[in-house]
Design goal:
Layout (H helix, E strand, L loop, with lengths): L3 H30 L10 H14 L2 H5 L4 H4 L13 E10 L3 E12 L7 E14 L2 E6 L15
Antiparallel strand pairs: 1-2, 2-3, 3-4
């Protein structure tokens, strides 16, 4: 025969075991969702993703490799905005035989203010062209534009 104390202990163990399992599942979900899925780098979306990540990381050499020759020369000195709190979200893609447009949502987060964090979001476009079988960026939103070889005028 089971005593009431042993039934309470068994119930407590089952409840604690269930709570521990739920905490474990929650931790697995949080730590495995991590970074966004890497898109195919041979697609317009993949090129925009790689370029945006390079610019945000400050790796202009990697970003430069994804620009057309025309985008690399003749641009004026320019400074893009801060990319510290910038997120780039894919909205849509229009692909034609030799050109593509990739619409993105640019979201900038601000952590200050009397009511907590706020965000500013708007849509912009990347224009891509196919050159030698690869997609290259012809124009990018100004927030993500780089000019590795600016034209200097006096």
């Amino acid at each position: 025969m089971h005593s009431p104390a042993s039934t309470k202990n068994r119930t407590s163990i089952v409840i604690l075991g269930t709570i521990a399992a739920l905490v474990l599942v929650a931790l697995v979900v949080v730590f495995t969702r991590g970074a966004p899925e890497t898109l195919d780098p041979t697609t317009p979306e993949g090129v925009v993703q790689a370029y945006s990540a390079a610019v945000i990381a400050g790796d202009e050499d990697a970003a430069e490799e994804l620009l057309t020759a025309e985008a690399l020369v003749g641009c004026g000195p320019s400074e893009h905005g801060s990319t510290e709190n910038l997120r780039v979200i894919l909205v849509s893609t229009t692909v034609r035989p030799n050109t593509a447009d990739v619409a993105v949502s640019l979201v900038t987060s601000y952590n200050d203010g009397p009511f907590g964090a706020s965000e500013y979001e708007f849509e912009s476009n990347f224009a891509l062209v196919r050159a030698n079988g690869a997609w290259l960026i012809e124009t990018a939103p100004w927030e993500l534009s780089i000019c590795p070889n600016p034209t200097v005028t006096k």
